[in-house]
Specification:
single chain, about 375 residues, alpha+beta, Immunoglobulin-like, Cytochrome Bc1 Complex, Chain D, domain 2, 3 domains, five-stranded mixed β-sheet
Length: about 375
Amino acid sequence: MKRLQQLLAGIVLSGLGTVVHADYTLNMPVGVTELSRETYGLHMMVIYICAAIGLVVFGAMFYSIYAFRKEKHPVPATFHENSKIEILWTIIPFLILIAMVYPATDLTIKHYDTENAEMTIKITGYQWRWRYDYVDEGFGFMSSLKADSNAARQIDSGISPRKVHNYLQAVDHPLVIPVNTKIRFLMTSADVIHAWWVPEFGWKRDAIPGFITDAWASIDKVGIYHGACAELCGRDHGFMPIVVDVRSKEDYQAWLAEKKLILEQDNAQADRVWSKNELMVKGKDIYLSACAGCHQPNGEGIKGSFPAIKASPVATGDKDSHIELVLEGKGAMTGFAEALSPVELAAVITYQRNAFENNSGDLVQPAKIKEWLEDLGYDE
């Protein structure tokens, strides 16, 4: 019946001009890393052992039910024990357990062996986005649900998810890494417990506030790999996807050089005076990426959960208090001092103070944000 319903649904959607494909799988993915392949091999070994045990146990049970049924043996046997059999069925399971524990322990140790990594990436979970810091290169960026998916998912958005490419699976800035390179991942969180999970890599790690967990991967194949937060982390848990763009070493170096150039340009831009229009245009993009998930694209927030930006006493009140709140956070709100650049912080604060009919007329320059960050010790 369920299969019939799926087929009927496919026919209806196809009639509407949408081709629907379902990925019917019965097993975990093999993956694209050494760890994932070895994990798959261990998984299959244990499956075969369990299947063999099940075959022996149920075979013996059904044979006994048939061969020693009451009509053939109306008088039951009177034996009570057999020491040899009892010793045997104790030793055999013990040996089976040893056969499974040894490779499992060896693989577990290998999962946590991050020595001799060629590069290190720090992953920080936020409600509800990820930040990736390239520790060896000295830069990082936020990765959020792409704007078109974020807009379509809103209640009464009027946007059909079928018209959004990779709906809820695309991000604005994917994690870019080189192929065939041992990478150490350091994971933590700025607010609640998250979990970073890309199935094809063969592992999942929790990102815990105030604590760092680590893992490693060396991806064998160039491509785009999707994942998600695998820990219930709050209201928008389902809207913080992971996208990893694995490139050839040459393409990665070209991307890295381009990223560093953009970073240098951004640092230079932080020292100049920005116009209100420039700040508003950039601030809108940052707001939709970093703030709209809680405060909503229209700035009206969610009653009882997230305060509105529109007509907010913070966004229309003292400017320094507004800056301090955005930088350091308060209560359930995470501070953005380390998550956004001075230009991005200045732009989003300016946008909040002038959008949604707030019209304060206030401008916050990146140079002022840099001063705040220095005073708070974030430049150290």
